[in-house]
Amino acid sequence: MDMICERDVIAAVGEADELIIREAVRTKASRRELRLALAFTRGAAHAGAEAYGRLPGRMKRLVDLLTVASAGFAPPGNAAGRTNPPEAGHHAA
Questions:
Q1: Rounded CA gap, 65 and 4, in Å?
Q2: Is pLDDT above 70 for 71?
Q3: Which end of the chain, N or C, is less surrounded by CB atoms within 10 Å?
Q4: Do 25 and 33 contact (CB within 8 A), yes or no?
Q5: Mutual orientation of helices 6-13 and 18-26 as an angle, nearest 10°?
Q6: Which residues pair with 30 in a beta bridge?
Q7: Per the confidence metrics, is the pTM higher than 0.70?
Q8: Alpha-helical runs (H) found in the chain
């Protein structure tokens, strides 16, 4: 089985938090599984909890990680170097 690497994950989701990328690689998913999980997160099947429930554990984990990455989750100081903008009305002293 041809397991995914960081480059594969970045190519699939674009810029993402380093932790999400590492965790996706840790699933030891194949490139085929990565494509299927990505299609699941972007497709009509994503809406169905029943379809999600039928996925094997590794695929559920990968779908969860890709969903977070696709949503643009970026904690302060993430791998992309972005930080959360200050809240409206709050200014640095």
A1: 14
A2: yes
A3: C
A4: no
A5: 120
A6: 3
A7: yes
A8: 6-13, 18-26, 31-42, 49-53, 57-70
